[in-house]
C-alpha cells in the first residue's frame, strides 16, 4: 500500500510540475506579446500636425448654411474614408 501512495504522490507531483511549466510558458508568451506590442506602438503616429492660418474662412464664425457647410468640411477632414478603411472617396 505504501508504494501505491508513493506512486499517487509522484503522479500528483508530475501533474503539478506540468501545470507549472505550462503556466510559465504562457507567461513568457504573454511577455513576448507585450514587448512586441509596445515596440509596434512606439512607431505609431495617429495624427498629422497642421498649421492653421487665421484667415481661413472655414474656421470663422459664419451664420446659417455657411456655418453648416464649414462644419461638414471640418468633419469630412477628420473622418476621411481612407482612414476608416471604407475605400470610398
From TrEMBL:
One of its GO terms (biological process) is bone mineralization. Keywords: Cleavage on pair of basic residues, Hormone, Secreted. The keyword Secreted applies. It is found in: Secreted. One of its GO terms (molecular function) is hormone activity. The keyword Secreted applies. One of its GO terms (cellular component) is extracellular region. Belongs to the parathyroid hormone family. This is Parathyroid hormone-related protein. The lineage of its organism: Eukaryota, Metazoa, Chordata, Craniata, Vertebrata.
Amino acid at each position: 500500500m505504501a508504494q501505491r501512495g508513493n506512486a499517487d504522490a509522484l503522479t500528483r507531483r508530475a501533474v503539478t510540475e506540468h501545470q507549472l511549466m505550462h503556466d510559465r510558458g504562457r507567461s513568457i508568451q504573454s511577455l513576448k506579446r507585450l514587448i512586441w506590442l509596445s515596440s509596434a506602438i512606439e512607431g505609431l503616429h495617429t495624427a498629422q500636425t497642421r498649421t492653421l492660418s487665421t484667415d481661413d474662412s472655414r474656421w470663422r464664425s459664419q451664420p446659417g448654411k455657411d456655418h453648416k457647410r464649414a462644419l461638414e468640411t471640418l468633419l469630412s477632414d477628420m473622418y476621411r474614408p481612407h482612414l476608416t478603411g471604407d475605400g470610398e472617396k
